[in-house]
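Notes to self, DNA-binding response regulator:
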Amino acid sequence: MKNLLLIDDDKELVSLLAEFLSLENFNIDTAPDGENGLQKALTGNYDLILLDVMMPRLNGFEVLKLLRQKSDTPVLMLTAKGDEIDKVLGLEMGADDYLAKPFSERELLARIRAILRRTQHKNSESPSKLTHLDIELFPAQQQAVCQDFTIELTGTELLLLEKFLAHPGELFSKAELSEEVLGKKLQPFDRSIDMHLSNIRRKLPTRQDGQTRVKNFRGRGYMWVDGELNLSAAS
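result:
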């Protein structure tokens, strides 16, 4: 049975979600504010954290920033409806996914299960080590080594990087990446894949040969560059 932590100051919503998720065979713990939620999150006793953005004492972004300094526990951000800034900022800071309020219980359940499937995949199906050019990826440790730098990755960043390193030089559409890595269909204006890739790019040092690591083919998708960039490979 998976352990979830719900950090939200909306008492009525917390009560409803805790009851619903308990019926779906999850162990639910709750926190009424960011400060209390951070203390619980840092115990490492949870498989997934549901984190509201607007809260007293510490808001969701402050909690996420402090959490990511010490923990890679998956985080699903609960954002205001239609607030793209909140969604982008949450992903930039290391959230695994976001869900806009108000949402249906079934949509929340689907997102939770998708994130947990990524974690299970990481623990059971990933190779012990994956190497491409100057990168060594260690899925079990959820980190990579590149040019003597150790890079900590979120669960989503790990699976996305693993996908690319296993298939360098292959073009993947955003729809493919969303379904295969994030476990959800790509929605209009969804920038999740773009933001997770941006985080990976930012964490990795520049290639010593000056080449870009990942190429964006506008309207078609992304390709991890294998050696010398060969644009004909995507034509």
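- The mean pLDDT is 88.
- The radius of gyration is 18 Å.
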